[in-house]
Amino acid sequence: MSKVIVDISMSLDGYMSASQVSPDEPMGEDGQRLHAWAFNGNDERNFEALANAVGGVGAIITGRRTYELSVPWWGLDGPSGSRRTPVFVLTRSVPQNVPDGGVYTFVNTGIDQALTEARTAADTADVCVMGGADVIQQFIRAGLVDELSIHMAPVLLGGGIRLFENHVANHVGLESISTITTAEATHLRFRVLNTQA
C-alpha cells in the first residue's frame, strides 16, 4: 500500500508560515524564506531532498485555507505544475471560484474520506498531506501518517503559524530515516511509529 507522508518547510522555531499571511503573501511576510532551498539553492542535495519527498507522490491532501491562499499561484495544475497531481481539499463547502479543468476535488466528509479518494487517485504512489497545520495535526492524531519530511530553514521567524502549536497526540514515536544538511536547509525524514513512547 502507498505511504502517507507529510512534507513541509519549517523555520527553526517551528513556524510553517510567517506572520501577516494574506492573499498577496500566502506564506506571510518574508515567509518564502522557508522555501528558498527548493528554488534558489545551487546544492544538488536540496533537489535530491525535494525529489525524495515528492517524487513518488500521486495525490495531495490540503485544507481549504491553504487552497484559497495558494490557488492564485498554483493555477489549474496545482502545486505539482505540469505533472497535474490530483489535489484533495478538505472543506465544509465547495468554493465558488474553482478553476475550470483544475486538479482539485473538494471533500467535506472528513480526513478518512479524503484519504480514501486520494489513495484511489494515487494508485500505488504516495499521498502527501501538505497543509495547513490543522490538517496535518488531524492526520497525525488519527495515526494516518507514515512519514514526516521536514525541511528546516535556517531562520527564526518569531511568529506565524506553528506546525505543532496545538497538542498533536500523546507521544508519537519517530524513527530517523535520513538527514541531509545544506547551507539552505536541513532536510529531516522520519518514519512515524504510531506508538506511545
Automatic annotation (TrEMBL):
- Report a single Gene Ontology molecular function: 5-amino-6-(5-phosphoribosylamino)uracil reductase activity
Q: Name one GO biological process term.
A: riboflavin biosynthetic process
Highest taxon above the source species: Bacteria
Which Pfam families does the annotation name? RibD_C (PF01872)
The Bacterial bifunctional deaminase-reductase C-terminal domain sits at: 3-177
- What's this protein's name? Dihydrofolate reductase
Its source organism is: Phytoactinopolyspora halophila
